[in-house]
Amino acid sequence: MTKQKNEFIFSLIFFFFSSFFFTIILSSLFIGNFEDLLSIIVRQDGLFVKLLRIALFIGICICIYCIQVNRSKYPKKYTSILLFGILLFSSLLLISILSSPNYSGIDGVLNMYYLDNHLAINSAKEMIIDSVVFIYFITIPMLGFFYKRKLFDNYFYKTYIKEMAPSLNISIIFLFGYSIRVYDFNSAASMIDFVLSLFSILIFMKITFSLRDAITLHSVINLLILVIGFAIIVLCWKLLQTCNLYYASLLFYAIGLLYWFFNILAESMRS
After folding, report:
1. Buried b / exposed e across 85-124, counting CB within 10 Å, b at 16+?
2. pLDDT digits (tens, 9 = 90+) for 2-23
3. Per-position DSSP letters for 64-128, written without gaps between them
4. pTM for the whole thing?
5. 27-48: pLDDT as tens digits
6. Alpha-carbon dihedral of residues 56, 122, 47, 111, nearest 10 degrees?
7. At what angle do helices 111-132 and 246-270 cross, to 10 degrees?
8. Taking the chain, what is the end-to-end CA distance rounded to the nearest angstrom?
9. Lower Cβ count inside 10 Å, N or C end of the chain?
10. CA-CA distance, 143 to 141, in Å (whole number)?
11. How far is 171 from 205, CA to CA, in rounded Å?
């Protein structure tokens, strides 16, 4: 697939799942019979976790198919990237399954440890994932857009980093996933998350509209989804307090990760 096809397909996927997410939030807020729908969908073994696993499994299947069909047409680098994709998506899928509360392997081996330290382990895991996402897929691309001339002329960047650099649309999807959280304005930590999310959204708006020659309709729509989604999440914070929104974040992280990987693959096919 080319980068243009990736942009179209993943922007469409992003639009569909974000619209579905907004519909669920607003339905839970305004329709009495649907008030528990959101908490059911975003729970640890809810619909969003199942969709996350399906997305990772599809990524594995596509990688295996590409290896089988295009092995002789492209250089070894192409096959190496596909093998990396299989390893990455398989590892994430396995972690998702093993961390499920219904996984029987936990019982009898680490059951007491898991129960006693469940919250601490989950908090540490979420912090690590969010930190990696915010640094690599949000902060570095932001800096890259402001210092692109220096970066693009750099030999190390051209040789080793350029293919792996997230595009604007990828960063928007990751930022959307990062901004999905309960903003409790009585908590200092939550206020820091709010300021980081708001500041990042404003910077991405500036970047998007400064790229007048390169801006696409998909970028504008994705940015609009990001802004609308952030506004809905902030305004509905009381409703969202009862939910664990992190599994919704993970679904959009998975969409962004697949998009990023297939962009790297498209770049390797050109070289």
Report:
1. bbebbeebbeebeebeeeeeebeeeeeeeeeeeeeeeeee
2. 889 999 999 999 999 999 999 9
3. HHHHHHHTTTS-HHHHHHHHHHHHHHHHHHHHHHHTSTT-GGGTTTSHHHHHHHHHHHHHHHHHH
4. 0.90
5. 988 887 777 888 888 888 889 9
6. 100
7. 50
8. 14
9. C
10. 5
11. 12
Model pLDDT, residue 108: 42
Residue type (1 letter), 130: D
Q: Which two structure tokens, joined as six digits, stand for 223?
A: 């940015």
In angstroms, how far is CA 191 from the centroid of its own chain? 22
Which value, in Å, is the radius of gyration of the alpha carbons in the chain? 20
Q: Cα-Cα-Cα-Cα dihedral of 201, 204, 208, 210, to 10°? A: 120
Q: Are residues 117 and 99 in contact, defined by beta-carbon separation less than 8 angstroms? A: no
pLDDT over threshold 90, residue 95 = no
| pLDDT surpassing 60 at residue 115 | no
Question: Is the distance from CB of 177 to CB of 132 less than 8 angstroms?
Answer: no
